[in-house]
Amino acid sequence: MLIKSSDDGFIHPFSSEITARATYEGRRDMLRLMACGAAGAVLATWAARDALAQTATYQRPGKLAALAAGKSGVAGAMTMEKLTDYKDASTYNNFYEFGTDKADPAKNAHTLKTTPWTVEVEGLVRKPAKYTIEDLLKLSAQEERIYRLRCVEGWSMVIPWVGYSLSELIKRVEPLGNAKFVEFVTLADPKTMPFLGSRVLEWPYVEGLRLDEAMNPLTLLTFGMYGEVLPNQSGAPVRLVVPWKYGFKSAKSLVKIRFTEKEPPTAWNKAAAQEYGFYSNVNPNVDHPRWSQATERRIGEDGLFAKKRKTLLFNGYEAQVGQLYAGMDLKKNF
Ligand code: MTE
To answer: Is the CB of 165 under 6 A from ligand 1?
Structure first.
């Protein structure tokens, strides 16, 4: 076995060093079909998503998790930690368009209409384009990546996501020299999203990254989790996962990706700039004004004696992303 495991609990593999153990249930074939890009198959499997979602019992606890995950060419894209149960990951969510209680999205997001779906890429790019979800699925091979997601509220999960690096899409559209930021705009449809009437945030939910952050191979354009297409409450049909930042940077149900010269105003920053900075890198040394960020509660470990875990700088991905912030004061640029 050639996989090296390091003290931080992560393995830092090269794709050729991982032995794939193709022992998944049949539903993994769906994402494989998507990756193959046969348009008919993609449409057929997408239509079957709800039926498949009902059968979700994916559990691969323990140390074998990363080994069974198959290949990932992205260093740091795996962790040896126990996966969060699918049930927890799909019933304890933040998706304020469907309500502010953690249980609301799973209860209410069935109204979200994910087909047909398009994502428009616009702004400072040489090749602006409107992609259907099928186009996006075909654009690059999907891989499974087991990432931690650390929410700013102090809880975390470990989830096997499926997608490909956002950089694959960015390279296609050829950003212009003056493009410095990427803005992510998500769906705001009052007909299907019951909470859009609330003023808790300004809609649509918007997030942003610096172009070099968006180009980092860890930034995942995500279509699935646990070998299935995303359930609605997790941001179907396409979302972002930025594993070294607090979860709110990982915008769900994307409809526009816009390249800009100036830092885009983002939903949480507009709502409370002192509490939610543009960068929002996971950082145990920079407290939220109302609570410490030094520890976290892993969802699924809630027993009376469950210990809190120490939060890691950049959520444990410092080797992969630390250089993006060289020379920056992370207390000021929180
Ligand atoms: N995206 C949209 N469109 N709306 C939201 O309310 N919540 C964010 C982020 N993306 C949110 C969103 C927050 S606060 C978190 S912690 C993560 O989604 C949660 O993702 P999860 O439900 O997959 O854990």
So the answer is: no
